[in-house]
Write a structure and sequence with these properties.
With about 290 residues, the chain is α/β, with parallel strands linked by helices. Helices cover about 35% and strands about 20% of the residues. It has helices at about 5-20, 20-30, 45-50, 65, 85-95, 110-115, 180-185, 225-230, 250-280; strands at about 35-40, 60, 75-80, 100-105, 120-125, 130-135, 135, 155-160, 165-170, 175-180, 190-200, 200-205. Strands 2-1-3-4-12-11-10-7 form an 8-stranded mixed beta sheet, sandwiched between helices. Strands 5-9 form a two-stranded antiparallel sheet. A two-stranded antiparallel ribbon has the order 6-8. Helix 3 (about 45-50) links the parallel strand 1 (about 35-40) and strand 2 (about 60). The longest helix is centred in the C-terminal third of the chain and has 31 residues, at about 250-280. The two termini are about 35 Å apart.
Length: about 290
């Protein structure tokens, strides 16, 4: 793990916490200690981002899914590489169809998403290098993702060596949330993050690893201090507490970390809001096999 990016994520988490509303804090509390289940991977570490964001979650091993199906009101995160058994794939498919939220990264595209939900997205057969690309919110991302890069943000995204580009097979059903023209030029596909619905549930997938390992300072703006970025985002310095440990961080590093972390928070908050709506209408999902 790059030490600078670890600190960049901590700084980004401070900014996100300073922006949180009372309603958002209440929604996270309602989600519960096991509202988010995380299958660890040997490459990615989404759980570290969840911890920095103070989002409750519980770790479950891949074998847990061989025997059990998450509840439809939960979110399941499968880290890269996402090696699951055929029995686990069947449980993941049923979980989403009944209302669950699935979030996967990188090689889980081929190992989880393709076999569980064929015909929506696929690996295009190429692999990226260890590189960084500029990213932008897609025109049809929709709220809340449409404001992910507010205030003139110009983030970059790190591609792990051998990441799997995402080919969208059904553009009418798959919504691209984040895209990159540079990724398309180099590897044939622009999608960085996608979402699609299956039955009553939804699937989110993102290329590369969620815990970004590095960023690049490409412009004069990128080279500015991270405090300049906090000011751009409208987060007052006095809301961030003691920030001495972040003093040497560049704008590009914290901006990239914040975009990554905010995207995860948006996905979790969408799950929490859906659960609240279902409870209020009396149409909450039935419990699964916990």
């Amino acid at each position: 793990m790059d030490e600078r990016m670890e600190r960049a994520y901590r700084a980004a988490a401070r900014m996100i916490d300073a922006e949180a509303t009372d309603e958002e804090r209440a929604l996270l509390e309602e989600l519960g200690e096991d509202g988010v289940l995380v299958v660890p991977g040997c490459y990615d570490r989404v759980e570290e981002v969840l911890s920095l964001l103070c989002i409750p979650h519980r770790r479950v091993e891949a074998g847990w899914l061989d025997r059990r199906q998450p509840r439809p009101d939960q979110m399941l995160v499968v880290n890269c590489p996402g090696h699951l058994s055929p029995a686990a794939i069947l449980h993941v498919r049923a979980f989403v169809r009944q209302g669950g939220s699935l979030f996967t990264t990188d090689w889980a595209l081929k190992h989880v998403v393709e076999p569980a939900f064929p015909g929506f997205v696929s690996h295009n057969g190429r692999t990226t290098g260890d590189e960084v690309v500029r990213v932008e919110v897609a025109p049809d991302a929709g709220p809340p993702f449409s404001d992910l890069f507010a205030n003139g943000a110009d983030p970059v995204w790190w591609m792990e060596g051998s990441s799997y580009p995402i080919r969208v097979l059904r553009p009418e059903a798959v919504r691209v949330l984040i895209r990159s023209r540079e990724l398309e030029e180099r590897h044939g596909e622009p999608a960085v993050a996608v979402r699609f619905e299956v039955g009553k549930g939804e699937v989110f997938h993102m290329i590369s690893h969620y815990y970004l390992q590095r960023a690049e300072t490409r412009t004069k703006r990128h080279q500015a201090s991270w405090q300049a970025y906090a000011a751009e985002a409208g987060v007052p310095a006095d809301a961030l507490g003691d920030v001495q440990e972040f003093a040497d961080l560049k704008l590009a590093e914290v901006e990239s970390a914040r975009v990554s972390a905010r995207n995860m928070r948006f996905v979790v908050m969408e799950r929490a809001r859906r659960n609240r709506s279902l409870r209020r209408t009396g149409n909450g999902p039935a419990n699964g096999n916990e």
